[in-house]
Design a protein that fits this description.
The protein is of the alpha/beta class. It contains 13 helices and 10 strands. It has a 5-stranded mixed beta sheet, with helices on both faces. A 5-stranded mixed beta sheet has the order 7-6-8-5-9, with helices on both faces.
Length: 334
């Protein structure tokens, strides 16, 4: 992948580095982050990545600032290169709210991070897939036995690959995983160094449109592919009204984006460094919006956590319910 696409490789890469990042942060601070003072917030600090299209749109439009103005709360946007760093920022108190995929929170919780799940986007199974070159003789997941598959270690597509192989009657040990970040995986895929690539949007959309990659399977019937909103535990308990206002604005902006997909893609594409056609295709795979984390959704996240522990991607088992708020936020329409 070209350098112009490099920033988006940060979305879920390097989750394994998170535990080390927390250890360094804790050492620098002399222990866990201190508790926040019991005062009304003057600002909401939101951690985001450029690949989070809806947040990028909100930031560019200023819609959230207008929504929170009546509450006397300003918005400070803090950009992070990747989910692990964002979770570190949440853990040490430099942000209040963040948005990441399924994998980073699991690794973060195993590393002792203090956060809670406060909401999630609807599942987006079409936004991740296992692809092969357009002229590959491989026609099914079962034919991946013994093949080299590029993927980002510990990411959402790691779980997709495990479950897709299982559905096809194969074991994870039947294939040869090649752990590569998206940019490196794209290069290996194009030069034929790997037989397949497990990847997510917008890289998936880029591969389909630019090199005509062929989808063997996406997440439908295999993996849900949720995206999560996470918040510092104390902030949720003290300022639920601020987060509720944020989610109300997310619902409004989500509806506008889905009704104006082409215009939204044109606005977002320059900020992400991608062609509008790629952004539009990627956006079409995400339902967007926000919902409270139900017991059913938490159970799905638990399955991923258990799978990651079995694969030794996290050092100990965790309970997702331990990272849920005491009182779930009352989100609009739910």
């Amino acid at each position: 992948m070209s350098d112009s696409h490099a920033p988006l490789s940060f979305r879920r890469r390097g989750v394994f580095a998170l535990a080390a990042a927390f250890a360094l942060a804790a050492a620098a601070l002399g222990g866990p982050a201190p508790a926040r003072a019991q005062t009304a917030p003057k600002e909401l600090r939101i951690g985001f990545q450029k690949s989070a299209s809806l947040l990028v749109l909100q930031k560019a439009s200023g819609s959230l600032e207008k929504k929170l103005q009546p509450l006397g709360v300003a918005v400070r946007w803090v950009e992070f290169p990747a989910g692990p760093q964002l979770l570190e920022g949440l853990n040490v108190g430099s942000i209040d709210l963040g948005f990441v995929g399924e994998a980073p929170p699991i690794v973060a919780q195993a590393a002792g991070a203090n956060f809670v799940y406060v909401g999630h986007e609807p599942p987006a199974p079409q936004a991740e897939a296992i692809v092969v070159p357009k002229d590959s003789p491989i026609k099914s997941v079962a034919e991946l036995k013994g093949k080299k598959i590029a993927l980002n270690k510990g990411s959402n597509v790691h779980y997709l690959l495990v479950k897709a192989l299982e559905k096809a009657g194969l074991q994870y040990s039947d294939v040869q995983p090649q752990f590569l970040a998206p940019a490196d995986a794209r290069a290996a895929f194009e030069r034929g160094a790997v037989d397949a690539w497990a990847i997510w949007d917008p890289f998936l959309a880029a591969a389909e449109l630019q090199v005509q990659a062929r989808v063997l399977t996406d997440g439908r019937g295999v993996a849900h592919n949720f995206q999560y909103y996470l918040a510092e535990r104390g902030y949720v308990e003290k300022h639920p009204q601020v987060l509720q206002a944020v989610f109300e604005d997310i619902e409004v902006q989500s509806r506008w984006l889905q009704a104006n997909l082409k215009e939204a893609a044109a606005r977002i594409a320059p900020l992400q460094g991608l062609d509008p056609a790629i952004v539009e295709r990627s956006l079409s795979h995400y339902p967007l919006g926000v919902k409270p984390v139900s017991p059913e959704v938490a159970a799905e996240q638990q399955k991923i956590a258990d799978s990651f522990h079995a694969l030794k991607l996290i050092p100990k088992p965790i309970r997702i319910v331990d990272a849920l708020p005491k009182q779930p936020l009352k989100l609009a329409g739910h």
